[in-house]
Design goal:
Structural class: alpha/beta
Order of helices and strands: HHHEHEHHEEHEHEEEEHEE
Strand content: 25-35%
Strand order of the largest sheet: 3-2-1-4-5-11-10
Distance between the termini: 36 Å
Number of domains: 2
Radius of gyration: 19 Å
CATH topology of the largest domain: Rossmann fold
Helix content: 25-40%
CATH class of the largest domain: Alpha Beta
CATH superfamily of the largest domain: Vaccinia Virus protein VP39
Bound molecules: S-adenosylmethionine
């Protein structure tokens, strides 16, 4: 996901007053919390819960829908890190052919369920493929590649990003675009006290019906620029242990992202600070980029 800073929790309100006060709020991180493999998969192990947690996140979906009308031409659209189909399904409904790719079997299973509920015509326009975006098993050519909701924050090194951009270049038709969004790093959020719990909120697990308390904390490594996040799901009834889910997100600072894109031969055509098309300024949550490969 995505990240606790961005609509992470079902009823997440302001973070201002939700710093925990009880003894269990003082958590320490150990070696396991820095396991990048686990922190790439755990948050995506439960597709229905993911959809429940982000059901209110609609502005980005609308943005990608409108963008596809403008840039997808005859398609197909290739989506990198399509997850549960949050963006894929509306694009299919709009009449586009979409090739959705993701690393997580669980997220793809949920996407398949959602696509399966569509009408026959929309269903027939969908292809879902388990794939690492750094090495795509795709031979097609596309006018538009999209990657929504911070999926690129799972590219933990510049080598990972370079691999993805090389794949995008390979499959893009001349004149084609890559559109993606990542968070705009918030220094105050990154430097929060990792021993405290944040974003505390309560909700009902959509699968079990159990009421749980959700909270998060994180440690940020300023050298790798990776935030190691923990999500806590504490049962409020029936007892049982608190479930802890790990997530890692690599942060891209705006000027750094510009430089990385440039170094990999991509020009920025458009850049926004939100999904309504406002310019990127310091306190924006997102960086939304429309880029295209420079051709020799
Ligand atoms: C925050 S979710 C976003 C999902 C979806 N784009 C959305 O808007 O809801 C990030 C997704 O990226 C996927 N992912 C992470 N690393 C990946 C990789 N190397 N290649 C393909 N998908 C990856 C995860 O499995 C997850 O589904």
């Amino acid at each position: 996901m995505s990240g606790p800073r961005q609509a992470a929790a079902p009823d997440a309100g302001s973070d201002a007053a939700d710093v925990g006060e009880s003894a269990d709020d003082f958590d320490t991180f150990d070696e396991d919390d820095f396991d990048l493999e686990a922190a790439t998969h755990e948050h995506y192990a439960d597709g229905p819960l993911y959809d429940h947690e982000y059901k209110r996140r609609r502005a980005d979906v609308n943005f990608y829908r409108l963008l596809a009308r403008r840039l997808a031409g005859e398609g197909p659209i290739v989506e990198l890190g399509c997850g549960t189909g949050r963006v894929t399904v509306p694009l299919l409904r709009e009449g586009h052919q979409v090739v959705g790719t993701d690393l997580s079997d669980a997220m793809l299973a949920r996407a398949r369920t959602r696509v399966g509920r569509l009408g026959r015509a929309a269903r027939s326009r969908a292809t879902l493929v388990r794939a690492d975006m750094r090495s795509l098993p795709l031979a097609l050519q596309t006018p538009l590649v999209v990657s929504a909701f911070n999926a690129f924050e799972h590219l933990y090194t510049r080598v990972d990003l370079a691999a993805v951009l090389a794949e995008v270049r390979r499959i893009l038709k001349p004149g084609g675009h890559l559109v993606f969004d990542v968070q705009n790093p918030d220094l105050r959020w990154l430097s929060r006290d990792p021993r405290r719990r944040w974003a505390r909120t309560r909700f009902k697990d959509p699968r079990t019906g159990q009421r749980v308390e959700y909270s998060t904390n994180h440690v940020y490594d300023p050298v790798s620029q990776i935030a190691f996040i923990r999500f806590y799901y504490r049962p409020l009834e029936g007892g049982g242990p608190t479930r802890i889910v790990r997530l890692a997100q690599r942060k891209f600072f705006p000027a750094e992202l510009e430089a990385l894109l440039d170094a990999n031969g991509f020009d920025i055509a458009e850049r926004y600070g939100d999904f309504q098309g406002e310019p990127l300024v310091g306190d924006c949550e997102s960086q939304v980029l429309v880029v295209r490969p420079r051709r020799a």
